Amino acid sequence: MSKQLPVINLMGPTASGKTALACELYERGGFELISVDSALVYQDMDIGTAKPTKQEQALYPHHLIDVITPLETYSAAQFVEDSCRLIDDIHLRAKTPILVGGTMLYFKALLEGLSENLPNADPQIRAEIEAQAEANGWQEVYDELARVDPEAGEKFKVSDRQRIIRALEVFRITGTPITQLQREQPKNIPYRYTFHNYALLPDRVELHERIQLRLKKMWEIGFLNEVEDLIKKYDLNENLPSMRCVGYRQALDFLNNGDRSLKKYAEMEDKALFATRQLAKRQYTWLRSLQELHHFKTYSSIKQAHEDLRKLYG
């Protein structure tokens, strides 16, 4: 197989306009879309994830949407395995894959590979860590991590719960800090691809306005009703990765609290807006760290990105 198979990576923070751009390229023919979004993998989580509607998906089919239930987990390793299989299939159909999304961990795993010998997730150990946090607080769990893996302690914050769980899980399984294993173990890099990396990085003020408008629309079209339906259908709790998605955590807290007053509703909306802005901030940080190691073309203007990519791939 050719070692120069092209892959287009279209990245950007939430609400940056990357999906619309990918769909425009798809219309020109010769492309297939692969979602790079850790929230879009969940079935029945549509409004709060800004998932393309069924009608939009019929016009612009996306791979890796609706692949698991909200009770299941989907790792970066699974993403790399699934996306590489899809990329190869798309190339066999003489088309070019466009990977579009904002989950930078997935992009990093695809661009740089993953440590081959890191242990798989252990549900029992994860449950023990979560039970410890629930009983004694996340600060105690974070302090334990900082003792056994000072480098991870410097990188993570107490609020980085999923990363803390994974790092402690690896240490409890292997007895070795995850940061050491990541440095020492070989990477499984998909050399057979040539990545063309593009990033939409709009002005922060403009992006915050787009985020606010998107969330306003979500609430208006029934986001809270969607979470109520999820609670009826699934045995949900706040520790599930699906319920850590921005918006869902805040809505779940509101619905479980019992106080449905207008004041609490407004607080929920404010918390969801703040969490989404914080997500965008983290995505900017991830993108800049990726740019230090990989060639990127970045755009602050969505209009300019459309014009350039139309010329390149029109």
3D architecture notes:
A 6-stranded parallel beta sheet has the order 3-2-4-1-5-6, with helices on both faces. The two termini are 26 Å apart. It is globular and about 55 Å long. The mean pLDDT is 91. It has 14 helices and 6 strands. It folds into 2 domains: 5-114 and 187-313, P-loop containing nucleotide triphosphate hydrolases (Rossmann fold, 3-Layer(aba) Sandwich), CATH 3.40.50; 123-184, Histone, subunit A. By secondary structure, the protein is an alpha/beta fold.
In short:
This protein has 314 residues and is α/β, with parallel strands linked by helices. The protein has helices at residues 18-27, 54-59, 76-92, 104-112, 123-136, 138-148, 150-155, 161-174, 178-184, 204-220, 223-233, 248-257, 262-291, 302-313; strands at 5-11, 31-36, 62-63, 96-101, 193-200, 297-299.
Give keywords.
single chain; 314 residues; alpha/beta; Rossmann fold; Histone, subunit A; 2 domains; 6-stranded parallel sheet; 14 helices; 55% helix
* Helix amount: 55-70%
Based on CA atoms alone, the radius of gyration comes out at: 20 Å
Instruction: Give the DSSP E fraction (strand runs of 2 or more residues).
Output: 5-15%
Structural category is alpha/beta
Strand order of the largest sheet: 3-2-4-1-5-6
In CATH terms, what is the fold-level topology of the largest domain?
A: Rossmann fold
Identify the overall geometry. globular
The CATH architecture of the largest domain is 3-Layer(aba) Sandwich
| Fourth-tier CATH superfamily name of the largest domain | P-loop containing nucleotide triphosphate hydrolases
Q: Give me the count of strands.
A: 6
